[in-house]
Amino acid sequence: MTSILRQDDNLQTTFADRHIGTTPADQRAMLDVVGQPSLDALVRAAIPESIHAAPVTDSSIPTAVGETEALAELRAVAGRNTVRRAMIGLGYADTHTPAVIQRNVLENPSWYTAYTPYQPEISQGRLEALINFQTMVSDLTGMATAGASMLDEGTAVVEGMLLARRASKVKGDAFLVDADLLPQTAAILGHRAEAVGITLRGFDAADGPTDAQLDGAFGVVLQYPGASGRVVDPSRTIERVHAGGGIAVVAADLLAMTLLASPGDLGADVAVGTSQRFGVPLGFGGPHAGYLAVRAGLERQLPGRLVGVSFDADGSMAYRLSLQTREQHIRREKATSNICTAQVLLAVMASMYAVYHGPEGLRFIAHRVARTTTVLADVARAAGAEVVHDGFFDTLTLRFAGRAESVVTAAHEAGYLLHLVDADTLQVSVDETTVPEDVVALAAVFGAADVTVPGTETAVRDAGTGVPSALDRESAFLTHPVFSAHRSETRMMRYLKHLSDKDYALDRGMIPLGSCTMKLNAATEMAAVTWPEFARLHPFAPREDVQGYLDMIGDLETWLAEVTGYDTVSVQPNAGSQGELAGLLAIRGYHRSRGDESRTVCLIPSSAHGTNAASAVLAGMRVVVVACDEDGNVDLDDLRAKTTEHAEQLAALMITYPSTHGVYEHDITEICGAVHDAGGQVYVDGANLNALLGHARFGDFGGDVSHLNLHKTFCIPHGGGGPGVGPVAAKAHLAPFLPGHPMAQDADRRTGADASADGDRPAHAGGPVSAAPYGSPSILPITWTYVRMMGVEGLTRATEVAVLGANYLAARLREAFPVLYTGESGLVAHECILDLRPLREATGITVDDVAKRLIDHGFHAPTMSFPVAGTLMVEPTESEDLAELDRFVDAMLAIRAEADAVARGAWPAEDNPLVNAPHTAASVITGEWQHAYTREQAVYPAAGQAGRKYWPPVRRIDQAYGDRNLVCACPPVEAFA
């Protein structure tokens, strides 16, 4: 057998062989095209010799195992978690994920491998699902416009605060904070407010703020219902804030809003919160889709993605992302939107939960929750407890004089998790999974064994609710037909299939997006995400219940630290943008701990990701741009000049490596040294780690801190533009300033932790950047499994093949489309930039025309006009096979030939396959064909395409119309006529 394996280069024997798309024979053929003798020679020529990492002789990463063995190990890890009935509340509720949604969305690669819908013509399905989400949030909160999701509730509140500051007429820097705000939200808010000079003033919502507190306050945030479960009418506080010119933000529970008057009904300007309890598993804290919605007049202040309605070239209604000029890749440090601030896959799940249940179903669930809570309150009173609040929805604050801790302990032993407030007080929260048997069990725990407990559905149905009658909801919600048309599972299944069929995702073909690394998300990696041992744990469950999670997270922190050359890693940031922010806040904390409060300047190359500049501003820093030379490298002379000019104020340099231009800069160690000599810290953006892994390490060549994108290099799916995880890795001197969390299970991961709190690893004692202590841990098994099955050798080979793929495409395409930047060796990294500006000058064909024509060929376009306008940034990844790479090359060469035909006059400039692309089925079969090219040329530009044709559902969409005429909720049925 051994000899056979050696003879057959195409035989795939390990997981790495199956993850990597090209065979050894393919790679030899590609190397011939590139002009390199071997993979090792290629990366040694491309990556500067000065930063090549020495081989790791004693790796913490175990030798790779197969898929069966990896899942067996992960089963053992999951077995160290204990699933109990989570009744802690505090913004998280157990929920029933309808099986039709779990199977057809969460576990469906058509949904989880899709990318951010920047090519709207091939994203109509997920855009429709997101507009359903926006409509659901807008209706339930009573707001005019809702965004397409936020990262979680805590960060959504931060965004609401920043929006209020932008929109308020008050020039002061104070923000009022409800004392009953969720504790994790309060912790994030405090950390983020301090960095941008906002003063927080706490107040009791029952009493309202004082005149002194209102003075100079640009806004307020109110929790509704409160963290304690208390329901207080916020309208009086809202009126007083408005009277002073401020903005009112309400953090509202969406399920409660089916029974309670909405924030919009009560006069709020902004509503924020989470949609987690709408069918999204607890997952130890994430990922979940937060939300943010605004009243009329604040639409253009919205952060994050916003789906709107426009029309295509045939006048058919179509969806697209609206107001993209707000976003960080365009406005940089002045942005109000960050494209990474979204959880699309989870928003789709929540929206479909509402579609599945409809308004009647949601009200039924809410009534059942509220009535069960009332029954539980009666039981607690019978057991001698005091029910602290008269008005409540799903959460009770109970006083058990002197015995709250013993009650919580007894509940834990009985299989229930309650929240201990103090020696006398606890909280218990009801959700849709709570059944009468749970009330019976808790009655015994409370000490009401002699009390007759109403343990039947009838008793729950006949109970009242704790919702104050003055706050009963009267306004309608979810009246659009989509929320009543798919009630049977058959209809629901077909609706989900109908939407996914409209979209282009990785399950259809290559998505060659530069800077985004759309590679294989293997089924084995995804398997554990829905295991109950990972999916049903509350983020604040006690340490003894989550040991498996902590072990897995510990493994990942160790492995990621090793491959990056850093000393410690925090997995808390739940997006790459949050990882950037966490790293910069750590740098800020470090300087301030040394008395260097004046160090606030952040140097950022002109080529950098837009998130860099936006994150720097949110970390309280001032951006100074460093020029790049004609080869795309940082201009060393300008860097030295800027470091000298700002030597006393220099906080950090943010630099992406390999560069955003897709090349390995040979002067990277000199760049890092110049910044260190000036007293600054070096932040290396880890977005392009897939071009370095196993060959060079950020921490070795001068980095002090980096974020990593697990949804790029480490295979967590993009999910249509979220979820993501952006761990932050750092040298030991920055560890105390990495994000901690007041409720973290590990003592050395708590805000304010002692460095020796939990063993010999560095403590993370900074403020949190995510609502949950460990960010989005339910998707971390994906990365754990990927690393476990790849091993060091597999990860290293993946980098080599990714670099080979990019250089192969560059070599085959550079005569038709010049490659804009290369390194000193003439090679690129794992992506290349094709310059289409000469094409436009010669033929009139634009980068948009090329991108849309690629749809006719059955491709998602590469990244358009970033980092250079009029270019395409192409990243093939290591997962694509040679046939797919060649298919892409053939498509690009065919497009070049068509453009040349236009230049020769074979087709009119205004009527040719490129400017009319993409072509729908309807466009070629409806009416008389009057174009200068044939139907076959329109829809089958490549030979043999008919059998695998992807048909776009709409033609080219009018982007400008949608921005001028903003419609961001489900259009009426008549619009589809």
From TrEMBL:
<comment type="similarity">
    <text>Belongs to the GcvP family.</text>
</comment>
<dbReference type="InterPro" id="IPR049316">
    <property type="entry name" value="GDC-P_C"/>
</dbReference>
<dbReference type="InterPro" id="IPR015422">
    <property type="entry name" value="PyrdxlP-dep_Trfase_small"/>
</dbReference>
<comment type="subunit">
    <text>The glycine cleavage system is composed of four proteins: P, T, L and H.</text>
</comment>
<dbReference type="InterPro" id="IPR003437">
    <property type="entry name" value="GcvP"/>
</dbReference>
<dbReference type="InterPro" id="IPR015424">
    <property type="entry name" value="PyrdxlP-dep_Trfase"/>
</dbReference>
<dbReference type="GO" id="GO:0004375">
    <property type="term" value="F:glycine dehydrogenase (decarboxylating) activity"/>
</dbReference>
<dbReference type="InterPro" id="IPR020581">
    <property type="entry name" value="GDC_P"/>
</dbReference>
<keyword id="KW-0560">Oxidoreductase</keyword>
<dbReference type="InterPro" id="IPR049315">
    <property type="entry name" value="GDC-P_N"/>
</dbReference>
<dbReference type="InterPro" id="IPR015421">
    <property type="entry name" value="PyrdxlP-dep_Trfase_major"/>
</dbReference>
<dbReference type="Pfam" id="PF21478">
    <property type="entry name" value="GcvP2_C"/>
</dbReference>
<feature type="compositionally biased region" description="Basic and acidic residues">
    <location>
        <begin position="746"/>
        <end position="763"/>
    </location>
</feature>
<protein>
    <recommendedName>
        <fullName>Glycine dehydrogenase (decarboxylating)</fullName>
        <ecNumber>1.4.4.2</ecNumber>
    </recommendedName>
</protein>
<dbReference type="Pfam" id="PF02347">
    <property type="entry name" value="GDC-P"/>
</dbReference>
<feature type="domain" description="Glycine cleavage system P-protein N-terminal">
    <location>
        <begin position="17"/>
        <end position="446"/>
    </location>
</feature>
<comment type="function">
    <text>The glycine cleavage system catalyzes the degradation of glycine. The P protein binds the alpha-amino group of glycine through its pyridoxal phosphate cofactor; CO(2) is released and the remaining methylamine moiety is then transferred to the lipoamide cofactor of the H protein.</text>
</comment>
<feature type="modified residue" description="N6-(pyridoxal phosphate)lysine">
    <location>
        <position position="712"/>
    </location>
</feature>
<feature type="domain" description="Glycine dehydrogenase C-terminal">
    <location>
        <begin position="798"/>
        <end position="919"/>
    </location>
</feature>
<keyword id="KW-0663">Pyridoxal phosphate</keyword>
<feature type="region of interest" description="Disordered">
    <location>
        <begin position="741"/>
        <end position="770"/>
    </location>
</feature>
<feature type="domain" description="Glycine cleavage system P-protein N-terminal">
    <location>
        <begin position="483"/>
        <end position="748"/>
    </location>
</feature>
